[in-house]
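Q: I'm writing up a methods section and want to include an example of the input and output format. Could you take the sequence below and give the corresponding predicted C-alpha cells, formatted cleanly so I can copy it straight into the document?
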Amino acid sequence: MHVTHLSLSDFRNYARAELALGPGPTLLVGRNGQGKTNLVEAIGYPSLGGSHRVAGDQALVRAGEEAAIVRMRVAHDERAIVVELQLNKTGANRAQVNGSPVRMRELPRYVHTVLFAPEDLALVRGEPSGRRSFLDALIVQRIPRLAGTIGDYERVLRQRNSLLKSARASRLSPDALTTLDVWDDRLVALGVEIIAARVSLVAELRPHLAAGYAAVAGDEHLAELGLRHTIVDPTGEGPLHTDDVLDEQRAAEQFRFSLSERRRAELDRAVTLVGPHRDDLVLTLNGLPARSHASHGESWSYALALKLAAARVLRADAVAGDPIVILDDVFAELDEGRRERLADAVSDFEQVLITAAVENDVPDRLAATRIHIAAGAIVDPTPPSEDAP
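A: Here is the clean output for your methods example:
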C-alpha cells in the first residue's frame, strides 16, 4: 500500500497543497515549523482515527476557515481508491471513499499506516492511557468492526459512571442499584471482547518486538510485553489467559466478581474501577519495568521497536499489503548507529515517509527522493500525476 497523491485544502498551515508520491522512501525536509509534519499528519489521520499530535480536530483547520479537506489516492497492486475527509470546526466530520459516504470509524479499513513521532516516547515513559490507545488503534486497523465495540464500550462506561454519580449524590445503598446490573452485563460483554483482542494482539507483537529492539538498539537486551488486567479476581484459581488465548468465560466471571467486590468503592468515587479502560500494556527490559529502568536511549529504542512490531503485524495479516511507514522527526533523536539500523529495519516496506529538519540526519538510502517544505508550501514538488484525486 502506498499514497500516490495527497491534496489538502485549509489543513493546518496549508491553504492548498498538491503532492505526488511514489513507493519507496521519501524525505520531506525543511526547517522546524514549516509544515512537514502537517503533511504526514494528514496521511496518518484515516488509520489512526485522528491526529497523532492533538486530541481534537479544531487545530487541524486553518485559521479563519470552517473546514479542512484531506484527499488522498492510495494504491495497492493494480487497484487504487480515493479517500476524502472533511474536518469541521463545528459539527460532525465527513468521509468518502471513491465518492461514497462512509463512517469515520470505517476509514482504518482502507488506509493502514504506522507512524512514529517524538511523542511516542510516552509509550514507554508515559501513562497507561497512551499504551491502551496504541493497542486499540492497531486492533481497529486489523479488525475494523472492533471500532464499534470499543465505541460501544466507551458509551456504556459513560452511562455507568453517570449512574454511579447519581447514586452517590442521592445516597442510595449498593443493594438499591439494580439498574447497575443491567449496565454491568453490557460492560462485561463488550469489555471481554476488547480484552480478548488485546491478548491476541500482544501475543502477535511479542516476537516482533524482541526482533525490532535488537535491530534498532543493536543490543542483546530482552524486551518483553505483557498485559495487566484490573478485572483479575485475586481469589480465583487458574490464569486469566495463556500467552495468546483468553479464557473468555473465565474472564467474564472474574469481571463480574470484581465489579461486585468494588461496588462500594465505585459508589464512593463515582467511577468504574475495573475493566479494559484501566488496564495497561506492561513493557519490560531484561525483566525490569522499562518505564522506570530504561535509559533515554533504551526508551527510544523500545518505542521504535513497538512501532516496528506493529508494522510487521499489519504486514503479516493485511490483504492490502504493507502499511505506510511514517517516521516524523525521528532521526534527530538517534545516534548514528541507531539511525543506520532503523534505516535497515524499514527499507523493505513499500512506502516510507520521513520528515527531518536536517537532511544529513537521515541515511542516504532513505533520502534519494527529497521534497523541500517552506512556510506551508511545497517548494520543489514532484509534478502531480495525471490520476491525482
